[in-house]
C-alpha cells in the first residue's frame, strides 16, 4: 500500500520553530508531526509513503531516510517546482501512485489524530478495495493524478495541520454508501464565523454549499481537512495552481458529488502556536485513555504530562496540566510549567514559571523567569534571570536581557 | 566664638494627613514621616542626622496629625535611642511650612539665646544631611547676617520642580529665590533644611499680618454670623504661611539668606514610591559606611543568599533558598518562603512571600501575602546615575490616560494569589486580587 503526504511550503505560521526545522519535523508531543502520520500508516501496512514538498530540505530527506529504515517502509520525496495550491501535488505524484493500481488516501499533513488506519483498511477490504493514504499538506492534487486514477479506486486526502481521531474506516463505509465522487469530514466548532462552513443535508450528508466566514450563523460544521475521493475528481483538476477548497469543492457540490461525514472526538489544526498548544492538550487527553503508561505519574505532576525518559526534573516543581517535555531537557528545582511544550535539550532554571508557551530546542531559561501568553522561543534562545516574557515570539540564537511585557516579535 | 551654654534645637515639619497624597496608598495607614525606609522611619533617619550635632538638646516635631499610638511610641523610642528630648506640637489646622513655626514661636524660642540658631527640616526628605558642616559654615560665614539654607544641585530640567536658588558663588549670598519656576532659574535647589535665628520670627510676624490683611480683604462680606467666616475656605487657615513662597522669596537679594551647598551627597524628597526605593538604596549604602552591623551578611550555610546591601529585621524568617538584594529591606515578622527572589524592594512588617515568588522594584505594605510563583514587578524611575546631580523626576501618575510605569505598590492586607503577575500597578489596601494586573490602579 502507498500513501501520499503533501507537506507543502515553509510553515510560516509556526515560525520561529520552522526557521530551524521543516514543519513536518517539528515535534508535536515528542514526535515529529509527520511521524504521527507515517507511523500510523506503517502500522496498518503502508509500505510506501510519498512526501510531496514544495521546497526541499536536506534535513527532511535525511530524517526520512532514517525513519524509512526504522519502520521498514519506502519513503519518497516528490518536489513541486512551483507552488501548485492544495490540489496540484496529487497530479505531481501520479507516477508513484499509479504503479500498483490501488486506491489511496490523501491526508493533509498538519492533521494529528488517532489515525484509525487499521479500521480503515479493514473496512476497505470488506468492500474489496485496496487503499492508498495521502497526507495533503499544501500541494496540488493534480500532480498526483497518474498515481491516483489508475485503479479507479477512492482515496483519502488529509489536511496536514489537523489532529483528530482519524475515523478512516467509518469514512470509507460512508463514502461507499453514498457512492459519489467525494467525502469531506466535517467537525463542529464553537465559532464557525472564523472558518469556511459546510452546509449539508442532515440525514444524508449531501453537501449543499460552502460559505466562507459567514457573518450570520448558517452552520457550525467546518471542513476538518480529511477527504476521500474517487479518482474521477482528478478530471476536475488541471495541472496549475488550484485551490481544492475554493474551486474544486464548490463545483463538486453543485454536481451533487460531495458528501459530509461528521467527525466524533477531538480535532485541531495545529499549524500555529496557539492551536498547537490546544491540540497538545487534546492529544494528551486522548493519550490518557489510549496510552496511559506514556504519561508521567511522578511527584509534582498535575494532569496529563508527557516527559521524555531522558529529561530530568528537579524537586519541588509543579509540572502540568498539559505539559510535554522533550529529550534531555533539564528542569531545575521549584519550576512551575503549565500548558507548554519544552523541546529537546533546553534548560529551565529554578523557580521559573512558564504557561502557554513553546520553548524551542537548546533554549536556556534563567531563574525566576515568567513566560506566558503564547510565547514561542526558537532554537538556542537564552532568557536572563528574573525576566518577564509576555507573548514574545523570539527568533533563533537570541539572548534576551530585557523583559518583553507586551506581545512582540524579537528578530 | 560661642559659649557652651548654647541650647541647639531642631524643628522637623512632619506635615499633615492632607500632605503626601501622592504617597498613597502607603500614607493611608500611618503618617508619611513614619514610613520605614531601610528598616527605619523617615523621621528616624532625620533624627539620626540631627543627633550628629553634639549640642542638640531638643527636637520639636510640628505637624497636624492627631496624636496617635504609632507617633507616640516612635517618639518615646527615639528619645531613648538618641538621648534627645523630642516633643510633638500639634497644629489646630494645617498651617503651612511657615505657619507652624510662627504659631509655636514661644516654644521654639524658649531656652534659646538671641544670638543662637535653630534648624528647621522638612519631614519629607531623605538625605545624607551634612548638618554639622552646615552649622559650622553658618557660624563662620553667616553669623548675625542672617539665615542659611541647604542647597543641592539638580539638572536644569529637574530644577524647576523645586525651589530654585540663584546665589553668589563667592559670598554664598542668595540673590534670588523662586519656588517651582516655570522657566529655568538655577540648578541649585532648596533641600528643605534651614538654619534660622530668632530674627526669622519678626519676618514671619510681618508675613502673618500681611497674609491676614489679604485674607480679610478676600473674604465676602457677611453680616449675619461670624462663624461662616472660619469655614469659608476649607483647607486655608488664616495663619497659613508658606515658608518658601512667602518668606524665602522675599529674603533673596536682601543679604539675609545664604546657601550652604551640599557636595555630592545623597538627597531626595519623598514624594512618590519611586523616591522611596531610591532613598532605600541610599540609606542602605550609608549603613554600609557607618552602620555595617545593620546590614545582613552572607552566611555560610543557613542563611539566604545576600546580594549587595540588604536589611533584614531580626524577627523576619527567611528561607535559606531565598535570594535577596541588592537594595532590599525586610520588615518585622516577615516570612519569606522557599526560593523567593526579592530585588530593589521594601517588604513591610508581617508580610508573607510564598515559595518561588519574585518581587522586583516594589513596595509591599504591612500584612500582605504574595502567592507561590507570583511576580510583583515595578519599573524603576531612578535618576540617571551617569548625569551628575540627577534627582527623581516629577512623575504624574498618568500619561496619555495610561498609568505611567513606576514602582509597584501593594497596600497593606492585600492578598495576591499564586502564579499571577502584578506589573506597574498600585493596589489599594485590603484587596484580594483574583488575577494578573498590569499598569493599573486597583481600588
From TrEMBL, chain A:
Gene3D superfamilies for this protein: Hexapeptide repeat proteins, Spore Coat Polysaccharide Biosynthesis Protein SpsA, Chain A
Domain Mannose-1-phosphate guanyltransferase C-terminal, residue spans: 302-409
Keyword Lipid metabolism (UniProt): no
One Pfam family linked to the record: GMPPB_C
Keyword Nucleotide-binding: yes
Keyword terms of this UniProt record: GTP-binding, Nucleotide-binding, Transferase
EC class of the enzyme, as a word: transferase
Pathway the protein contributes to: Nucleotide-sugar biosynthesis; GDP-alpha-D-mannose biosynthesis; GDP-alpha-D-mannose from alpha-D-mannose 1-phosphate (GTP route): step 1/1
Single biological process term from Gene Ontology: GDP-mannose biosynthetic process
Enzyme Commission code: 2.7.7.13
All residue ranges annotated as the Nucleotidyl transferase domain in the record: 2-136, 137-280
Ranges annotated as spanning the membrane: none
GO molecular function terms listed in the Swiss-Prot or TrEMBL record: GTP binding; mannose-1-phosphate guanylyltransferase (GTP) activity
InterPro entries cross-referenced by the UniProt entry: GMPPB_C, GMPPB_N, Hexapep_transf_CS, Mannose-1P_guanyltransferase, NTP_transferase_dom, Nucleotide-diphossugar_trans
Family to which this protein belongs: Belongs to the transferase hexapeptide repeat family.
PANTHER family to which the protein is assigned, alphabetical: SUGAR-1-PHOSPHATE GUANYL TRANSFERASE
Name of the protein: mannose-1-phosphate guanylyltransferase
Source organism (scientific name): Adineta steineri
Species classification: Eukaryota, Metazoa, Spiralia, Gnathifera, Rotifera
TrEMBL record, chain B:
Name of the protein: Nucleotidyl transferase domain-containing protein
Occurrences of domain Nucleotidyl transferase (ranges): 9-218
Gene Ontology molecular-function annotations: transferase activity
Gene3D superfamilies for the chain: Hexapeptide repeat proteins, Spore Coat Polysaccharide Biosynthesis Protein SpsA, Chain A
Mannose-1-phosphate guanyltransferase C-terminal domain: residues covered: 306-442
Organism: Adineta steineri
Domain of life: Eukaryota
Family of this protein: Belongs to the transferase hexapeptide repeat family.
Any Pfam family hit: GMPPB_C
Amino acid at each position: 500500500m502507498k500513501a501520499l503526504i503533501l507537506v507543502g511550503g515553509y510553515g510560516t505560521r509556526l515560525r520561529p520553530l520552522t526557521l530551524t526545522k521543516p514543519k513536518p519535523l517539528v515535534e508535536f508531543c515528542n514526535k515529529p508531526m509527520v511521524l504521527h502520520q507515517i507511523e500510523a500508516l506503517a502500522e496498518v501496512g503502508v509500505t510506501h509513503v510519498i512526501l510531496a514538498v514544495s521546497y526541499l530540505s536536506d534535513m527532511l530527506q535525511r530524517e526520512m531516510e532514517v525513519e524509512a529504515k526504522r519502520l521498514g517502509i519506502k519513503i519518497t520525496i516528490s518536489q513541486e517546482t512551483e507552488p501548485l495550491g492544495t490540489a496540484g501535488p496529487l497530479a505531481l505524484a501520479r507516477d508513484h501512485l499509479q504503479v500498483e493500481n490501488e486506491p489511496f488516501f490523501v491526508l493533509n499533513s498538519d492533521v494529528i489524530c488517532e489515525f484509525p488506519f487499521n479500521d480503515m483498511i479493514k473496512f476497505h477490504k470488506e468492500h474489496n478495495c485496496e487503499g492508498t493514504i495521502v497526507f495533503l499538506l499544501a500541494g496540488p492534487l493534480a500532480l498526483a493524478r497518474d498515481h491516483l486514477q489508475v485503479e479507479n479506486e477512492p482515496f483519502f486526502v488529509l489536511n496536514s495541520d489537523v489532529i483528530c481521531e482519524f475515523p478512516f474506516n467509518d469514512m470509507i463505509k460512508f463514502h461507499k454508501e453514498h457512492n459519489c465522487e467525494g467525502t469531506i469530514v466535517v467537525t463542529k466548532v464553537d465559532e464557525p464565523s472564523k472558518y469556511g462552513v459546510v452546509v449539508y443535508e442532515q440525514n444524508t450528508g449531501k453537501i449543499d454549499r460552502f460559505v466562507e466566514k459567514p457573518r450570520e450563523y448558517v452552520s457550525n460544521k467546518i471542513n476538518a481537512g480529511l477527504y476521500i475521493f474517487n479518482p474521477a475528481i482528478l478530471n476536475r483538476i488541471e495541472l496549475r495552481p488550484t485551490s481544492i477548497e475554493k474551486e474544486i469543492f464548490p463545483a463538486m457540490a453543485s454536481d451533487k458529488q460531495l458528501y459530509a461525514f461528521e467527525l466524533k472526538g477531538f480535532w485541531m489544526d495545529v499549524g500555529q502556536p496557539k492551536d498547537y498548544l490546544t491540540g497538545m492538550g487534546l492529544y494528551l487527553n486522548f493519550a490518557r485513555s489510549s496510552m496511559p503508561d506514556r504519561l508521567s505519574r511522578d511527584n509534582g505532576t498535575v494532569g496529563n504530562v508527557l516527559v521524555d525518559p531522558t529529561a530530568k526534573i528537579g524537586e519541588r516543581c509543579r509540572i502540568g496540566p498539559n505539559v510535554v517535555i522533550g529529550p534531555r531537557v533539564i528542569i531545575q528545582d521549584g519550576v512551575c510549567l503549565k500548558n507548554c511544550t519544552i523541546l529537546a535539550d533546553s534548560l529551565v532554571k529554578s523557580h521559573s514559571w512558564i504557561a502557554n508557551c513553546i520553548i524551542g530546542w537548546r533554549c536556556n531559561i534563567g531563574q525566576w523567569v515568567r513566560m506566558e501568553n503564547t510565547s514561542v522561543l526558537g532554537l538556542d534562545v537564552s532568557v536572563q534571570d528574573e525576566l518577564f516574557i509576555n507573548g514574545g515570539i523570539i527568533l533563533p540564537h537570541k539572548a534576551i536581557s530585557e523583559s518583553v511585557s507586551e506581545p512582540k516579535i524579537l528578530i | 566664638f560661642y559659649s557652651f551654654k548654647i541650647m541647639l534645637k531642631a524643628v522637623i515639619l512632619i506635615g499633615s494627613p492632607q500632605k503626601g497624597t501622592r504617597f498613597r496608598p502607603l500614607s493611608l495607614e500611618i503618617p508619611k514621616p513614619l514610613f520605614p525606609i531601610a528598616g527605619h522611619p523617615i523621621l528616624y533617619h532625620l533624627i539620626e542626622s540631627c543627633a550628629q550635632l553634639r549640642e542638640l538638646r531638643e527636637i520639636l516635631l510640628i505637624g497636624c496629625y492627631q496624636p496617635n499610638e504609632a507617633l507616640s511610641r516612635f517618639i518615646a523610642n527615639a528619645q531613648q535611642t538618641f538621648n534627645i528630648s523630642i516633643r510633638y506640637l500639634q497644629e489646630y489646622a494645617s498651617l503651612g511650612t511657615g505657619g507652624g513655626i510662627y504659631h509655636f514661636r514661644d516654644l521654639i524660642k524658649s531656652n534659646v539665646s538671641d544670638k543662637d540658631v535653630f534648624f528647621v527640616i522638612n519631614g519629607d526628605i531623605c538625605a545624607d544631611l551634612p548638618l554639622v558642616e552646615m552649622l559650622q559654615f553658618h557660624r563662620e560665614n553667616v553669623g548675625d547676617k542672617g539665615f542659611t539654607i541647604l542647597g543641592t544641585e539638580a539638572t536644569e530640567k529637574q530644577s524647576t520642580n523645586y525651589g530654585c536658588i540663584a546665589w553668589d558663588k563667592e559670598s554664598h549670598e542668595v540673590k534670588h529665590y523662586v519656588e517651582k519656576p516655570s522657566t529655568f532659574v538655577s540648578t541649585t535647589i532648596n533641600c528643605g533644611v534651614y538654619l534660622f535665628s530668632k530674627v526669622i520670627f519678626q519676618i514671619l510676624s510681618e508675613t502673618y499680618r500681611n497674609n491676614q490683611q489679604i485674607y480679610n480683604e478676600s473674604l465676602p462680606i457677611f453680616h449675619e454670623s461670624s462663624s461662616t467666616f472660619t469655614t469659608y475656605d476649607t483647607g486655608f487657615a488664616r495663619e497659613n504661611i508658606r515658608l518658601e513662597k512667602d518668606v524665602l522669596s522675599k529674603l533673596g537679594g536682601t543679604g539675609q539668606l545664604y546657601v550652604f551647598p551640599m557636595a555630592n551627597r545623597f538627597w531626595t524628597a519623598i514624594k512618590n514610591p519611586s523616591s522611596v526605593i531610591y532613598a532605600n538604596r541610599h540609606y542602605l549604602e550609608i549603613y554600609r559606611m557607618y552602620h555595617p552591623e545593620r546590614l545582613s551578611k552572607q552566611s555560610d550555610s543557613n542563611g539566604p543568599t545576600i546580594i549587595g546591601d540588604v536589611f533584614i529585621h531580626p524577627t523576619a524568617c527567611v528561607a535559606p533558598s531565598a535570594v535577596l538584594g541588592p537594595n532590599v529591606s525586610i520588615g518585622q515578622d516577615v516570612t519569606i518562603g522557599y526560593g523567593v527572589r526579592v530585588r530593589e524592594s521594601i517588604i513591610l512588617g508581617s508580610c508573607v512571600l510564598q515559595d518561588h515568588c519574585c518581587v522586583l522594584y516594589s513596595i509591599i505594605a504591612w500584612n500582605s501575602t504574595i502567592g507561590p510563583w507570583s511576580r510583583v514587578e515595578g519599573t524603576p524611575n531612578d535618576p540617571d546615575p551617569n548625569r551628575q546631580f540627577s534627582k527623581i523626576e516629577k512623575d504624574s501618575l498618568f500619561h496619555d490616560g495610561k498609568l505611567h510605569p513606576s514602582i509597584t505598590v501593594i497596600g497593606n492586607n492585600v492578598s495576591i494569589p499564586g502564579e499571577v503577575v502584578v506589573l506597574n500597578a498600585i493596589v489599594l489596601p485590603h484587596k484580594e486580587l483574583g488575577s494578573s494586573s498590569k499598569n493599573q490602579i486597583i481600588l
